Amino acid sequence: SRLWVLGFQMRYKSCSHQKRGLWTTEQQIKREKDGSFLLSQSQKILELLEIFGLTDSHPTQTPMMTDFLKREDQTEYLANNTQYREAIGKLLYICTSCHPDISNAVSILSRKVNAPTESDWGAVKRIVRYLKGTIDYKLRLAACDNPKLTCYTDSDWGGDPSNYRSTSGYCFMYGNAPIAWASIKQNLVSLSSTESEFYAASEAGRELCWLDRLLSDFGRAESRPIVMYEDNQSCIRLVQNEKITCRTKHIGVRVYRLKELSDEGTIELVYCPTDQMTADMLTKPLPRESFEKLRGKFGLIA
């Protein structure tokens, strides 16, 4: 659905139940007069509300409580996790298609599918209730005459108290259109916030290389360097400084890979203040004010 910004042309067919739009695997796509596109999943969300009996529930303003990971879970395990798995599968579809605002919450709860608790199930229903409150929100793929690929990357150092692993988050914008995002738990414990940020930047660098090749295949080769926004100054200096110290030698392979991309002019790491870091929303549950600000930067509009 987001491939139009990469050079695809779309044909529109009239639908008896929807004016001036179409449904693609139940995703609604509308085109604005300025050439922008609006993506929504209102039908999927309505289906979720009906399936899980939440049609008359009260909406929430954020998808997850900020202290969810820090609270001690003393609730019982679910006797049957089938419904939990079904809900996570449906939420994963929604968040990867046009709702990046629930990506972190879904990522956290998807780790519990083998042994979810009553508390986890309550958190899943909270996401659905949040979607009820934002059912009219659409992901705006803004039109742009000369779009450039940019990346925002961030991490939450040791954010999971159960094992102190960090969460990486990155998002890619093509002009003003979000085209790729991810919230991923890192598979090892980072010894510092710089290391955690570096692992996140490394993952984003891999995705960037793929998107760069994809754009080239579409005849939209990117000018160099591609800007990667980072809110950790030490991480930026680590890439720009050739010296690997005893404190960073254990992440040397990742350092040299990002340095290679930087030295050859493929990427340029640029500092971005934390309160402007779009990817922060993908690393941890945020309080309402910060969450709504970054949600708007992502292009989600009512």
UniProtKB/TrEMBL annotation:
Top-level taxon of origin: Eukaryota
Species this chain originates from: Micrurus spixii (Amazon coral snake)
Protein name, per record: Reverse transcriptase Ty1/copia-type domain-containing protein
